[in-house]
Design goal:
It contains seven helices and no strands. The chain is mainly alpha-helical.
Length: 156
Amino acid sequence: RKFLILFSLSVLLITETISTGLINSFTDVSADLPKDLVVALFGTKPMPPMPQFILVGSSIAILVVTLCVSISLKFKDSSLLKSLYHTGQLSLTIYVGHVIFGLGFLDEMGWLTKQSIEFAVSSGGIFIILSIIFSHLWRSRYSKGPLEAVFRYLSA
Protein backbone atom coordinates (compact mmCIF):
# COMPACT_ATOMS: atom_id res chain seq x y z
CA ARG A 1 0.00 0.00 0.00
CA LYS A 2 2.84 2.42 0.75
CA PHE A 3 4.22 1.90 -2.74
CA LEU A 4 0.82 2.59 -4.33
CA ILE A 5 0.37 5.75 -2.27
CA LEU A 6 3.84 7.08 -3.10
CA PHE A 7 3.63 6.07 -6.76
CA SER A 8 0.20 7.58 -7.38
CA LEU A 9 1.12 10.75 -5.50
CA SER A 10 4.33 11.04 -7.54
CA VAL A 11 2.50 10.56 -10.86
CA LEU A 12 -0.10 13.13 -9.78
CA LEU A 13 2.46 15.77 -8.78
CA ILE A 14 4.73 15.21 -11.78
CA THR A 15 1.83 15.35 -14.25
CA GLU A 16 0.37 18.51 -12.69
CA THR A 17 3.82 20.16 -12.58
CA ILE A 18 4.57 19.37 -16.23
CA SER A 19 1.08 20.49 -17.25
CA THR A 20 1.39 23.80 -15.41
CA GLY A 21 4.89 24.33 -16.79
CA LEU A 22 3.80 23.70 -20.37
CA ILE A 23 0.78 25.98 -20.04
CA ASN A 24 2.90 28.78 -18.57
CA SER A 25 5.64 28.30 -21.18
CA PHE A 26 3.34 28.39 -24.18
CA THR A 27 1.22 31.30 -22.94
CA ASP A 28 4.30 33.37 -22.07
CA VAL A 29 6.21 32.67 -25.29
CA SER A 30 3.51 32.63 -27.93
CA ALA A 31 0.91 35.33 -28.18
CA ASP A 32 -0.38 33.59 -31.34
CA LEU A 33 -1.87 30.69 -29.41
CA PRO A 34 -5.04 31.43 -27.47
CA LYS A 35 -4.75 30.56 -23.77
CA ASP A 36 -7.86 28.35 -23.86
CA LEU A 37 -6.27 26.26 -26.64
CA VAL A 38 -3.04 25.86 -24.67
CA VAL A 39 -5.00 24.85 -21.56
CA ALA A 40 -7.07 22.39 -23.62
CA LEU A 41 -3.91 20.79 -25.04
CA PHE A 42 -1.72 20.68 -21.94
CA GLY A 43 -4.14 21.00 -19.02
CA THR A 44 -5.56 18.31 -16.76
CA LYS A 45 -9.21 19.35 -17.03
CA PRO A 46 -11.81 16.69 -17.91
CA MET A 47 -12.80 18.39 -21.15
CA PRO A 48 -11.26 17.71 -23.53
CA PRO A 49 -10.12 14.41 -21.97
CA MET A 50 -6.42 14.41 -22.79
CA PRO A 51 -3.96 11.72 -21.58
CA GLN A 52 -2.74 13.93 -18.74
CA PHE A 53 -6.32 14.11 -17.37
CA ILE A 54 -6.47 10.31 -17.37
CA LEU A 55 -3.12 10.13 -15.54
CA VAL A 56 -4.20 12.65 -12.91
CA GLY A 57 -7.65 11.12 -12.46
CA SER A 58 -6.29 7.58 -12.20
CA SER A 59 -3.62 8.68 -9.73
CA ILE A 60 -6.19 10.38 -7.53
CA ALA A 61 -8.48 7.33 -7.69
CA ILE A 62 -5.67 4.94 -6.72
CA LEU A 63 -4.56 7.28 -3.96
CA VAL A 64 -8.06 7.65 -2.49
CA VAL A 65 -8.89 3.93 -2.66
CA THR A 66 -5.54 2.93 -1.14
CA LEU A 67 -5.88 5.48 1.66
CA CYS A 68 -9.44 4.30 2.36
CA VAL A 69 -8.31 0.67 2.55
CA SER A 70 -5.43 1.61 4.87
CA ILE A 71 -7.69 3.65 7.15
CA SER A 72 -10.39 0.98 7.23
CA LEU A 73 -7.85 -1.69 8.21
CA LYS A 74 -6.34 0.50 10.92
CA PHE A 75 -9.70 1.49 12.45
CA LYS A 76 -11.76 -1.60 11.59
CA ASP A 77 -13.55 -1.61 14.96
CA SER A 78 -14.55 2.06 14.82
CA SER A 79 -18.25 2.86 15.15
CA LEU A 80 -17.88 5.57 12.49
CA LEU A 81 -16.52 3.03 10.00
CA LYS A 82 -19.31 0.62 10.90
CA SER A 83 -21.79 3.38 10.05
CA LEU A 84 -20.01 3.95 6.73
CA TYR A 85 -20.11 0.20 5.98
CA HIS A 86 -23.86 0.28 6.60
CA THR A 87 -24.18 3.28 4.30
CA GLY A 88 -22.40 1.40 1.53
CA GLN A 89 -24.72 -1.57 2.03
CA LEU A 90 -27.74 0.68 1.38
CA SER A 91 -26.28 2.39 -1.69
CA LEU A 92 -29.24 1.64 -3.99
CA THR A 93 -31.75 2.91 -1.43
CA ILE A 94 -29.67 6.04 -0.83
CA TYR A 95 -29.26 6.67 -4.56
CA VAL A 96 -32.99 6.47 -5.24
CA GLY A 97 -33.69 8.41 -2.04
CA HIS A 98 -31.40 11.25 -3.06
CA VAL A 99 -33.32 11.63 -6.32
CA ILE A 100 -36.82 11.32 -4.87
CA PHE A 101 -36.42 12.92 -1.45
CA GLY A 102 -33.29 15.06 -1.73
CA LEU A 103 -33.73 16.57 -5.18
CA GLY A 104 -37.52 16.28 -4.96
CA PHE A 105 -37.56 18.33 -1.77
CA LEU A 106 -35.24 20.97 -3.23
CA ASP A 107 -37.36 21.13 -6.40
CA GLU A 108 -40.63 21.51 -4.47
CA MET A 109 -39.11 24.33 -2.42
CA GLY A 110 -37.84 26.03 -5.59
CA TRP A 111 -34.24 25.62 -4.44
CA LEU A 112 -32.98 23.31 -7.17
CA THR A 113 -31.72 25.92 -9.63
CA LYS A 114 -29.61 29.06 -9.44
CA GLN A 115 -28.11 28.33 -6.03
CA SER A 116 -24.63 29.14 -4.74
CA ILE A 117 -21.89 26.56 -4.40
CA GLU A 118 -22.17 26.98 -0.61
CA PHE A 119 -25.83 25.99 -0.76
CA ALA A 120 -25.07 22.96 -2.94
CA VAL A 121 -22.25 21.76 -0.66
CA SER A 122 -24.23 22.33 2.55
CA SER A 123 -27.38 20.62 1.25
CA GLY A 124 -25.28 17.72 -0.04
CA GLY A 125 -23.51 17.51 3.32
CA ILE A 126 -26.81 17.44 5.18
CA PHE A 127 -28.06 14.64 2.94
CA ILE A 128 -24.85 12.65 3.49
CA ILE A 129 -25.12 12.98 7.28
CA LEU A 130 -28.80 12.00 7.22
CA SER A 131 -27.97 9.04 4.95
CA ILE A 132 -25.30 7.78 7.34
CA ILE A 133 -27.66 8.08 10.32
CA PHE A 134 -30.53 6.41 8.43
CA SER A 135 -28.28 3.58 7.22
CA HIS A 136 -26.89 2.87 10.66
CA LEU A 137 -30.33 2.87 12.28
CA TRP A 138 -31.84 0.75 9.50
CA ARG A 139 -29.02 -1.81 9.53
CA SER A 140 -29.18 -2.13 13.31
CA ARG A 141 -32.72 -3.47 12.83
CA TYR A 142 -32.73 -5.09 9.34
CA SER A 143 -30.15 -7.08 7.42
CA LYS A 144 -30.76 -5.36 4.06
CA GLY A 145 -31.88 -1.97 2.84
CA PRO A 146 -35.48 -1.55 1.66
CA LEU A 147 -34.72 -1.48 -2.07
CA GLU A 148 -31.87 -3.97 -1.70
CA ALA A 149 -34.35 -6.42 -0.09
CA VAL A 150 -36.87 -5.89 -2.91
CA PHE A 151 -34.23 -6.53 -5.58
CA ARG A 152 -32.96 -9.57 -3.69
CA TYR A 153 -36.52 -10.94 -3.50
CA LEU A 154 -37.21 -10.29 -7.20
CA SER A 155 -33.95 -11.86 -8.34
CA ALA A 156 -34.30 -15.03 -6.24
